Task: structure prediction
Amino acid sequence: MADQNNRPVVTRFAPSPTGYLHIGGARTALFNWLYARHRGGKFLLRIEDTDKARSTEDAIDAILDGMNWLGLDWDGHEYYQSQFWARHAEVAHRLLERGAAYRCYMTQEELAAQREQARAERKPFRIDSPWRDVTEGQGDTPFVIRLKAPREGETVIDDEVQGRVTVQNVELDDFVLLRSDGTPTYMLAVVVDDHDMGVTHVIRGDDHLNNAFRQLAIIRAMGWPEPTYAHVPLIHGPDGAKLSKRHGAMGVDAYRDELGLLSEAVNNYLLRLGWGHGDDEIISRAQAIEWFDLPQVGKSPSRFDFKKLENLNGHYIREADDARLADLVAPRLPGADKALLVKAMPELKARAHTLNELADGARFLFVQRPLDVDEAAAALLTPDARKILGAAYAKLGALAEWEPAVLEAAIREIAEENGVKLGKLAQPLRAALTGRTTSPGIFDVLALLGRDESLARIADQMEPTE
Ligand code: GLU
Result:
C-alpha cells in the first residue's frame, strides 16, 4: 500500500547508539515495525552514529541484539548515518545554491552578545544573522551553513497521533545545517537520510515534535515529498514521573537476562503501552499486524506498570513450549538436567511469572543433600512431624511402584493411619523434599525426584519409627 504521494510505505527506526536499547526505543521500533508490516511496506533500521564521541560499538551491538531478541527484523542491511556525511554536505550546498540557506560568519562573541541581549530584554533568543541575505563567500573565514528559516506565516503538521499542530514561523530559528568543520547536524542528516531511504512515515517519540517543524522547513526548501508524522507520547513511570532506571528504563537485555521475561510478553506489553484495540490484553503478533494503526495510539503519556508486564509474562510462560522453557531456564540452574526440567515444566510453569521464578521453583530438583531448609520450612519440621515422616519413609519404601497415583494413595493412607489431615503430612514432606514451603504438588515432587532421592531426603529429616 502507498502513502498520500503514492509511494510504498517505508518506516524506520533511527536510534543513536549512545546507550542500550531502552524500553521507549524498543516501543518506537515495534510501532514502526508493525505499521510497515500492517501496510505491506518496508521497515528500515538506521543507526544514527553522527555523534562519534558518544557512539560506541557496544551500544550498536546492544541495539541489534535487542531488536533480534524482540523479533523486529528490518528489511535489507542496516544503515549507518555517518556513511552519508558527504551527501549531507552536498544537500547543504544545494540549499545554499537555492538561496534557502546561507553562510553565516558570526563569531562566538557575536552570538553570545545576541543571546545576552535577548536575556536582558526577556525575549526568547532567535538568532538574527547579518549574513542571512549575503550571497558572496568571505574567503577563508570559517563559517557555518544555516537554514534561512521562513519568518512569515505558520507551519502546520497533521500528526497521526497528536492531531493538527501549528507553529508560528517566527518561532523557528535559522538553525545550523553544516558546522564549520563540514560535519552535518542531526537536523540535516535525519531529513536527508529519510528522503534518500524513501521514508514515508516518521513514527517516533514526541520529544521530537519540535524538531519536525524545523525538518519540514528543510524538506520544503528542497521540494521533497513530505512524510507523514506520528509522534508517540513518551512512557512514564507508575507515579507519572519521567521514566527512570528505578521504573524500568533499562536496556531490553536486562528485561531478558535480569528479569527473565519472554520476548513475546515484552512485545505484547509494549504494544498495549500507548496503543489499544478495545479491551484486548493478550494480542498475538499476527493480530497485532492485522490491527495496528496510528489513530489508535493514545495522546497522553502511558504509565509503565511492572506488575502488568509480569502477569502478561506469566501468561506467555504457561503458553510456551516446555522444551524451550527448559532451554531458557537451564543456564540459570547450575548442574540442571534438561530432561528432568522438561518433565517438571508443566507443574513448574503453572505457578511462575518469570524465568527467574521458574528457575527458583525448579531448584529443589538439582540441589545436593543434605538440603538447606529455609526458615519457614524448618518451622514445619516439628518433633511430631518428624515422626510422621518416619512412618511415611517406612511405607513409601515398601511401594512396588513410584507413580503419582500410587504415591497419592499411599500418602493418604499414611495420613489416615497416623490420624492427621493430609496437609499435616504434606507440609513436612514438602519441607523435607524441597527445603521450602511452596513447590509443585507433593505427589509430583516425589515422582520427579524418584524413589531413591525422595527416600534419602525424607531420611535426612525424619525421626525413625522403632
Ligand atoms: N536518533 C534520534 C534519537 O535516537 C531519532 C531521530 C528520529 O527518529 O528522527 O532520538
